[in-house]
Structures are given as structure tokens and as C-alpha cells.
Design brief:
Blueprint lengths: L1 H12 L6 H20 L10 H13 L4 H20 L26 H8 L7 H16 L3 H5 L6 E2 L4 E5 L4 E5 L2 H18 L19 H15 L9 H12 L4 H8 L8 H18 L4
Antiparallel strand pairs: 1-2, 2-3
Helix pairs in contact: 1-2, 2-4, 5-9, 6-8, 6-10, 10-11, 10-12
Length: about 290
């Protein structure tokens, strides 16, 4: 069955919309499923059926795997069996009509505007690192982009005069407006700090580490934890916190849901539902406190 896995992975590589991480995830999921089959003496994919798949999913549940993990594994199996059948192997799809486990969406961590101001005030523009960190935090909150998008920005992707950045993924490209404070912070970084960090003009990444190479996600994570601690913020802050705060604060101030979704790069506006739920809860709390007959 290894040949089927190899062919499946090769077919994914040919699909431009599949990122490298997605392909690795599919490969890992199917490799573990095939190991499950081998442990049960199944060496022919046509000998698997609905009961086989259900048994595997039940095993994952017994192992304590989260619903999100099981849901992803089932999605991988569906794609794999679709490939198997499309490749000419005659069998019935054992994943057909199997229900995907309900995945409870976590309520995202959101900072208040006061906490945002406190966090953004932590980087001190007294050296190159301070200018860089100030620019990164300001830009994240101003645009709501992902950390992966931030660290992959090139110097040519930001237009300071027009106040826009250009974000690219494997399949999408979008322009996101940047506020004046973030424009000023990035401008200061480019003029006063980046020339001290970049080894030569051939390096096009906007944000660099102290070695003159692209900053990593782990590097940004450490930076964020340092400033959370110095700001005295008790909430758990992740690299997504500024993105979530960006969305909620715009919603609270009356911004259109569809426009925010476009700025965040969502292909489906339903992804915004989690933010609407937070906003609805906030409105309900205000009503309960303010209305005399609540």
C-alpha cells in the first residue's frame, strides 16, 4: 500500500492550492492509518470498509485525540480513498456518509484597547531591535495579518505612501490598509534600524533577526512573551492575539463584517462567526447591566 501513499502524495503536490504543510499533514495522517491497517493484518486497501474506518476513528477517540484531530484525520481519509478509487481500484468508498465530529471552536484570546496600548508601548526605540519590534507589533494590530504573513513580507510588499501592504499566499493575494501609527513605526524601522540588520541589498525580507536572516515564528513568539511579561498583562497571549483583537475592535466600532473578513484573508465569511459570538456576548452583558428590567 506504500505505492498508493506515494501516488497520493504526488497527486497532492500537483495541486497548486495545497501548501507544503498541508501535504505533510495528509501524508502523516495516511501513513498512520496504513500502520493501523498493517497491525490488523490488512495489506490490501480493497479489504477495508466502513467498519474499518469507524474502528480506526474509535481508536483515536480512545487515545484521547481531540475532535479537531479526528475530524482532520477523516478529511485526510476521504481524500485518500477518493484518490484510490479515481486511480482505477474498484471498491466502495468506506468514508461515504460518515459524520465529521463536531469541533468546538475555542473562544479566541482578545486584548482590551487599554491592554493593546500597553503592549505596543513596550518596545523602546533605542536600538535596532526596539525599532523592529515596535514596527512588527504595530503592523500586526493595524492589519490583522497572520504572523506567518508578517515574517514573509518583503521590503517591496509595503507601500508607506499609500498605506498598504501586499500579502501573498500560495493561492491568494490581498492588499490590506495600514494605519498612520503603524506606517510611522515601519518607516522608522526601515530608515533607522533595518540598514543595521541587513547584510546586503539582496536580502528582501522586511523583518530580520539579529543575524540578518528572516525572523522565524519561534523568534516572534519569544519576542511577544517578553513584552507581555514587561507589560504585566496576565492574559495568555499567542501570536494570534493581535489578529483576534484587530477583528473584535473593528466590529465593536461598527466595521462591516464582510470587509473585516476580506482584510483577514478569509475565503469563507463563516470563519467570522467566532468573533460575532464574542461581540454578541459583550452586547448581552451591557444589556444585563444597564436595562432596569433585564
Amino acid at each position: 500500500m506504500q505505492e498508493l501513499l506515494d501516488g497520493f502524495v504526488f497527486s497532492l503536490i500537483g495541486e497548486q492550492e495545497k501548501s507544503g504543510n498541508t501535504i505533510l499533514s495528509y501524508k502523516r495522517d495516511i501513513s498512520q492509518y496504513l500502520a493501523f491497517l498493517r497491525d490488523r493484518g490488512i495489506s490490501d486497501i480493497t479489504k477495508t470498509d466502513r467498519t474499518t474506518v469507524l474502528t480506526y476513528l474509535l481508536l483515536l477517540r480512545k487515545q484521547g485525540r481531540a475532535s479537531a484531530t479526528i475530524s482532520r484525520r477523516l478529511a485526510s481519509l476521504r481524500s485518500f480513498y477518493m484518490y484510490v478509487i479515481d486511480s482505477g481500484i474498484h471498491m466502495k468508498d468506506p468514508t461515504m456518509n460518515l459524520e465529521t465530529p463536531q469541533v468546538a471552536r475555542r473562544t479566541p484570546s482578545v486584548l482590551t484597547t487599554a491592554e493593546i496600548e500597553l503592549l505596543l508601548a513596550q518596545p523602546k526605540c533605542i536600538d535596532a531591535k526596539g525599532y523592529r519590534d515596535k514596527a512588527m507589533l504595530e503592523l500586526l494590530y493595524a492589519t490583522g495579518i497572520k504572523v506567518s504573513e508578517l515574517i514573509n513580507l518583503n521590503i517591496d510588499d509595503i507601500d508607506l505612501k499609500k498605506g498598504y501592504i501586499n500579502c501573498r499566499t500560495a493561492t491568494h493575494e490581498r492588499a490590506v490598509p495600514v494605519g498612520q501609527l503603524a506606517v510611522a513605526a515601519v518607516s522608522n524601522y526601515i530608515e533607522r534600524a533595518r540598514p543595521l540588520m541587513v547584510p546586503d541589498d539582496n536580502v528582501r525580507f522586511l523583518f530580520l533577526n539579529c543575524n540578518g536572516t528572516r525572523l522565524s515564528r519561534q523568534g516572534f513568539w519569544k519576542i511577544l512573551k517578553t513584552y507581555r511579561k514587561s507589560a504585566g498583562i496576565e492574559k495568555d497571549i499567542t501570536p494570534y492575539t493581535l489578529r483576534h483583537s484587530f477583528a473584535i475592535h473593528l466590529l465593536e466600532n461598527g466595521a462591516d463584517l464582510k470587509v473585516i473578513s476580506q482584510m483577514l484573508g478569509h475565503t469563507d465569511i463563516s470563519a467570522m462567526q467566532v468573533y460575532s459570538n464574542i461581540l454578541d456576548t459583550g452586547i448581552k452583558n451591557v444589556y444585563d447591566k444597564a436595562h432596569p428590567r433585564a
